[in-house]
Write a structure and sequence with these properties.
The chain contains 21 helices and 14 strands. The chain has 571 residues and is of the alpha/beta class. It comes from Citricoccus parietis. InterPro entries: Dihydro-acid_dehy_C, DiOHA_6PGluconate_deHydtase_CS, ILV_EDD_C, ILV_EDD_N, IlvD/EDD_N.
């Protein structure tokens, strides 16, 4: 077959590329084979990525055995817990899009024929899938596994999510520094992503539900036999996909996104999946409203699993019970079974061969762990473009809350007020300026919620924010990712201290109880907000990011698709 990586023989570009590749040790036969990018977001900054180099080496070798050539390429490696320390947390989400650009520059610039993406921490999987949808070369995602966690002396598990949550209790005396450090010392016992159904494991499951990973690939323990087998099988599959020209835009259809939303609901996945799925859809040119899909499917799909932090079961339990493949098996009545997968079979054909899941861990669709969806989409006069609430899979929390607004433009100031006992019961704590434009890059509001919990105010104080939230935030009334964000024109930016706000989860509403006339008066008299950053990468991001309802991508509303072609002549 004709490969785009092979320019016409004899042209200057063909000759110079051949010279470069021969210098790397490729033979004359290698130079004309399919050329696969092995996308490696490796970093020694975090254990999420510390094992990826060894995986990349194995994948390159497996690609060679399958008759192609693998070229390892590197990208930025976004990791929340490390990189959120700077830029008010804005480097984390913005690095998702930087990663997509890294991939485009290497794969599209080099005119490589396909790519295999080593997926790890939260933003790598969506960033890789965004790039796949954008450049539309055959792509497969390889989940690289979750880390082992430790055990405390009392037999309780210790993981990084516990460290994250408990740290909010230090200032109020809920835990000592010494005890926090004891948990911290034992929380991570090896490489891989955070245990539990946080964003990373949700993204790995989402990739499989979209058809962009091999069936049975997620979740998986890092460096386990299953992970290594899947990596090698994925290498063989991507070579087949290149030869068959199975492209992402043939797989990433409206039906595939619907299937992914159902899977996220079934596993009580991360609320970050809403914006990431929307971003992937935007990059792939798919006209789908992900928030509307969550609202619609939430009426049909309850939580079929209860994995920490949404319930008592572990990620190891989910893997042993059948993983994402088992979840999709139970979801068949609501799935589009005709969608394609990267392996060449339809989802229906895949599920016909799937083993029966362990129904004690992955419940049937008609016997969910709870009757409510764990991701709730709220609309209303405060969030006309939507907002998100995360619920537990096993415990129903408060259904509604009404109170007086206390507005903060900075998370640190809000935490200081909570710790100083300056936030009273009955308050709706409004935290704005943490959206993609306002931070810029999107800041984390979870620490404010953990401070409220440490102060004993859970259930007595509600939170409304345009920031993103951890999956650990599933108690009390906490409304996140309010759209439009506070830095843009919209109701959230017009809230004043003392305004009444009401959130009603069963009704799916969050409302600012202020007249339209008063809001219009405020809009006309309120000073324009200054940009949060003007220099560096965050400045570039702030000037180009689209609203959160479009996934906070850097893709303009009417951006043309990249042109894919073979070079007829040297240029």
């Amino acid at each position: 077959m004709e490969l785009r990586s092979n320019f016409p023989v004899g042209s200057p570009r063909w000759a110079t590329r051949r010279t470069q590749w021969k210098a790397l040790g490729l033979s004359d036969e290698d130079v004309i084979k399919p050329k696969i990018a092995v996308v490696n977001s490796s970093s020694k900054l975090s254990p999420c990525f510390s094992h990826l180099d060894a995986i990349a080496d194995q994948v390159v070798e497996a690609i060679r055995e399958a008759g192609a050539v693998g070229f390892e390429i590197r990208t930025v490696a976004p990791t929340d817990f490390i990189m959120a320390a700077g830029g008010r947390g804005g480097y984390v989400l913005s690095s998702r899009d930087l990663l997509a650009n890294d991939i485009e520059a290497a794969v599209e610039g080099g005119q490589l024929d396909g790519m295999i993406c080593l997926a790890s921490c939260d933003k790598t999987t969506p960033g890789q899938l965004m790039a796949a949808g954008r450049i539309n070369v055959p792509t497969i995602v390889v989940p690289c596994g979750y880390q082992p966690c430790g055990i405390l002396d009392n037999g309780e598990p210790a993981d990084i999510e516990e460290v994250f949550m408990k740290a909010g209790h230090v200032a109020t005396g809920g835990i000592t520094i010494e005890d926090l450090c004891t948990i911290s010392d034992r929380a991570i016992a090896g490489p891989g992503v955070c245990t539990g159904m946080g964003t990373a494991n949700t993204m790995h499951i989402m990739a499989e539900a979209l058809g962009m990973s091999l069936p049975g690939s997620a979740p998986v323990a890092a460096n386990s036999t299953a992970m290594w087998e899947n990596a090698r099988a994925s290498a063989r599959t991507i070579v087949e996909a290149v030869l068959a020209q199975r492209r992402p835009r043939d797989i990433l259809t409206p039906g595939a996104f619907r299937n992914a939303v159902a899977a996220v609901l079934a596993v009580s996945g991360s609320i970050n999946s809403v914006k990431h799925l929307q971003a992937i859809a935007v990059e792939a040119g798919v006209d789908v409203d992900i928030s509307a899909l969550f609202a619609e499917l939430g009426r049909e799909v309850g939580p079929l699993t209860a994995i920490r932090p949404s319930g008592p079961d572990s990620i190891e339990d989910l893997e042993a019970a059948g993983g994402a493949l088992g979840v999709l098996t139970q979801l068949q009545p609501v799935l589009d079974l005709e969608v394609a997968t990267i392996g060449g079979r339809t989802l229906g054909e895949v599920l016909q061969r799937a083993p029966e899941p362990d129904a004690s861990i992955i419940r049937p669709l008609h016997e969910p762990r709870a009757t409510h969806a764990t991701i709730q989409i709220l609309y209303g006069s405060l969030a006309p473009a939507g907002s998100i609430v995360k619920l537990s899979a096993t415990e129903r929390r408060q259904d509604s809350f009404e109170g007086s607004a206390r507005v903060f433009e900075d998370a640190a100031e809000a935490i200081a007020a909570v710790n100083a006992h300056q936030v009273e019961a009955g308050t709706v704590l409004v935290l704005r300026g943490l959206g993609p434009s306002g931070t810029p890059g999107m800041g984390m509001a979870s620490n404010v919620v953990f401070a409220l919990n440490g102060a004993g105010l859970t259930g007595q104080v509600a939170v409304v924010t345009d920031g993103q939230l951890s999956g650990l935030v599933n108690q009390g009334i906490v409304v996140g990712e309010v759209k439009p964000e506070g830095a843009l024109e919209g109701p959230l930016g017009l809230v004043h201290d003392g305004d009444r706000i009401r959130a009603d989860i069963p009704a799916g509403t969050v409302d600012l109880l202020v007249s339209g006339e008063e809001l219009e008066r405020r809009r006309l008299t309120q000073p324009a907000r200054e940009p949060a950053a003007t220099g560096g990468w965050l400045g570039v991001y702030a000037r180009t990011v689209t609203p959160l309802e479009r996934g906070a991508t850097l893709v303009p509303e009417a951006a043309p698709a990249l042109q894919h072609h073979h070079y007829a002549k040297d240029s």
